[in-house]
Protein 1
Amino acid sequence: MANYTESIEKLIERLIKLPGIGRRSADRIIGYILDADLSEIKLLSEAISRMKENVRVCRICHNLSEEELCKICRDPRRRQDIICIVEKHSDVTAIEKAGTFDGVYHVLMGSISPLEGRGPADLKIESLLKRIKENHIKEIIIATDADTEGETTALYLTKIIKPLGVTLSRIGLGLPVGSNLEYADADTLSKSLESRRAI
Amino acid sequence: MANYTESIEKLIERLIKLPGIGRRSADRIIGYILDADLSEIKLLSEAISRMKENVRVCRICHNLSEEELCKICRDPRRRQDIICIVEKHSDVTAIEKAGTFDGVYHVLMGSISPLEGRGPADLKIESLLKRIKENHIKEIIIATDADTEGETTALYLTKIIKPLGVTLSRIGLGLPVGSNLEYADADTLSKSLESRRAI
């Protein structure tokens, strides 16, 4: 684009590195920035650098935090002896939305995937084991995804946590609430039958 | 999203104001920023504020510029007595890409659209007339879009520029180069017949 100025070209180069932003969307964002008030664009620019500077991961559970310990680890009303293990930050958000879990979390920062070359050493497992041993943890819930990587990770975790003598469970897999049995896939149905409960 | 920290929420609020960015894309951009190096994110944040601070419009033609006059108006090889009138900055880019025009531009910053409440007073027409009168302009090419707004604008400009006694033309409307006649719409075909040339 011969007509753009140098500062615009430089910004476009940066914008197209962002996920989901191509040349066309970058052009539209440039147009927006050119039209907007300087003060508003200053706030956007500051919000980006401030977010990057302020946000880190919790020293204990690796959840997102702006302080050494995250809100959940700092909360005296949460049971510190029950840990729910999840793959990523957004899983914490999802479970918090459900609002029924009153323990703390451990974010693995990924899952085991031999296909993509991610093994146990790439996950936050060492700090998890240290936590279980040093903090009188009573119960562990494995809440990794229900896909191949999540199940592989859950199997691996079961193997290494079981010998430590804590109560260990996997979240229930089965029919989603509100869904129709006839549309459920075969794997979900067999998991659902396996995890049946006496009534 | 209960789990995001304050700085993240603030940034998301700003991001979703950008065109084409919804909550989902904002989430993905947040993930990218969290994973990226601090130095890279600093450069992004700076590129945004620097672009907004540096870029303004050329005092003469209203094209984008980082100095008082844009590159084209400053270029001594360009003929300063032929003006091509376009609606917006990206039109300058398009014509510069073609690479055959050696005059200068005048960016109207919009088009006349009674439906959207934009009249001649909303466009940079006053400065255009001043330019024509004061700078010995010999020729004017009206290169507004071939849609209703563009045609309305071209008609209006013709009416006010014609009395000034400069050579005035409208860019050729017709079959796009490389296109098939059988797929052309009726309006394009009749324009194409109207603007036929003797061979």
Protein 2
Amino acid sequence: MLKIDAHTHIIPKKLPNWSDKFGYGDFIYLQHHKKGFAKMMRGNQFFREIKENCWDADIRLEEYKQFHTNVQVVCTIPVMFSYWAKPLDCLDVSKFLNDHIAELVKTYPKQYIGLGTVPMQDAEVAIQELERCREIGLVGIQIGSNINDENLNEEKFFPVFEACEKLGMAVLVHPWNMMGQKNMQRYWLPWLVGMPAETTRAICSFIFGGIFERLPNLRVNFAHAGGSFLPTIGRIQHGFDCRPDLVAIDNPVPPKNYIGKFWVDSITHDPMMLEYVMKMQGSAKITLGSDYPFPLGDLEIGKFIEDMNLPKEDIENIFYRSTLTWLNLNEKDFK
Amino acid sequence: MLKIDAHTHIIPKKLPNWSDKFGYGDFIYLQHHKKGFAKMMRGNQFFREIKENCWDADIRLEEYKQFHTNVQVVCTIPVMFSYWAKPLDCLDVSKFLNDHIAELVKTYPKQYIGLGTVPMQDAEVAIQELERCREIGLVGIQIGSNINDENLNEEKFFPVFEACEKLGMAVLVHPWNMMGQKNMQRYWLPWLVGMPAETTRAICSFIFGGIFERLPNLRVNFAHAGGSFLPTIGRIQHGFDCRPDLVAIDNPVPPKNYIGKFWVDSITHDPMMLEYVMKMQGSAKITLGSDYPFPLGDLEIGKFIEDMNLPKEDIENIFYRSTLTWLNLNEKDFK
């Protein structure tokens, strides 16, 4: 069976020294301090150690074999977004990352599918790069759950989503720049608590800001099973019902009506929660995801789903059909 | 059947002008601007309009009759915590609120159960008031999900929890001072997204900080079904497993081991989510809750649970037994 991992991250092995080039800012660079590993540095600050499966296409394919997974949807690592930089400098960074992914997709057309990154801090520049992404063979973009602390419903971001719909480019929303992170560094809480909240905030912004309503053909996937959105939909819907003066101010359609209209990935790390998401959302709107190659990801690429003894149709939906419909691609192109 | 609502809020009809008394700070006061209503003011800022069911004991009992609910566990409104104030001034505020609840419990011993509030910003003062709370007939305290942005695992708060265990005082953890609230005011997101994240942060702080481990007899209940903790336990457990160097630094026991050791209330607004919580946690650790009298609460006091056709034992657990064990009380005292 075709198995497509819809949520993985990749980065070029070598990055330019953008801080030197632009003369400001803590752009990310890589220190290849030992064989097979690199340190991601943000200015002089150590951000994270990564392994060669973060940049080596062949090692990735090799690691995926043991989980019978043929295809990877790749996008950059959220810390690379550089939304805080000057728009044209972020464009420069984005182009470098997007060209790398485009090259990969060209080399391995049946193994890799690419999503780009665009300077969301400037819609005009973002759309310019979005169009170029499409031309070089990427099928969508990954964006953050907020843009420099601003919510995705802000009108200034709307033209980018409008262009995505018009160009048929899919969107993956990934949590980053997590709420509350300054006050809960201990125990990795920005990743464990902040990230699911971020994704919830992003889905609420899409719904209450009327983005889904105004762009019915926009195809959006939310990371980590949509964060806490689906499990807290009772509270969110009740909030909409009891205080429409606060919640229904930009869109009169109830939040529950949007369930099943967007995609979420399967990263719950828990069969019981995945069952809940399936009951809510239907398997046709759940894409296999892993967050590979990071340790917090599902690095057995959906093995727990195989162990759930789901009906064949659900397995096929989750393992490839949902991703193909999200990205508007055909099964035959990967056989 | 006995039916106890374990999560409701109450406030005295008249509050002193603490800002005038202490000469600083935006303490809450009430403006009774029209019959049956009051404005909660924080300094000159309007915070929230409340109705007389927020302070009138008889109206509350009357409203509860239609939902066949005999008993209410009452505590203050989180905005009254005043953790930001000087400890002795907060003590003054706490005493006023606690005396009001103690008086209520004395007048209606079969209808009201009381939880106090204590100055968490100073453990010594907090414990002094905790002891007094016990003497005046309160059975526990309500605390915030963070104390002035600091997490509950901070060592300086531990003596308060230790004293709670020693004195047999229960704890209700309520979300407040929500992460990310500054950047997501629109659409009521601090309440819809921030609150479930706050409660998750609090449970993680109790677990990873080793509070449950060090105080096995401490009885703690978390509001709103524990926020997003139970639905995201897969991610939290996986984070603990894959990065113990970040997560297991203060307590080597896996987070899943604590499921069923604390209580959560039933406020999911959704039968499917409550089923999930029951499967995780067991009905013996789920207390009926409403967040009455606020609109975001379950103001039908668990009617959706009655409609779920649960086995009698589960209904009895949720409707009164779990609350009695959490608070160490006896059924016969309310008959």
